[in-house]
Design a protein that fits this description.
The chain is an all-alpha fold. Helix content is about 65%, strand content about 0%. Helix 2 packs across helix 4 and helix 3 packs across helix 5.
Length: about 100
């Protein structure tokens, strides 16, 4: 149990840890839908078994590991869209 309150407790915002864990849960669902065990997923992706287990348990993983998992699951296009290039306006072009 936490010994302190966070702003997320007061305002209903999700903490970074919660967001990371939710991402791990979504990727786990993709893995299971594909029919891969954690060992198979580690082998297919090149992410170590220990890193995959930690990711699914805590949500913590390197960006490279996340990409490797997404590629192995065929959902890397979703990561590509994550930070798509912003739309430029005429003012953006004029101001360089």
């Amino acid at each position: 149990m936490k010994k302190y309150l966070e702003l997320s407790d007061l305002f209903g915002e999700r903490s970074l840890d919660e967001r990371m864990k939710e991402l791990a849960d979504r990727l786990r669902a993709y893995r299971k839908k594909a029919g891969y065990s954690q060992l198979e997923m580690a082998d297919r992706s090149g992410v170590t078994y220990a890193s995959l287990k930690r990711f699914e348990r805590t949500g913590k993983i390197s960006i490279e590991g996340l990409w490797l998992l997404a590629i192995a699951l065929g959902c890397d296009d979703q990561l590509d869209r994550l930070f798509s290039r912003p739309m430029l306006t005429a003012d953006d072009v004029r101001n360089g």
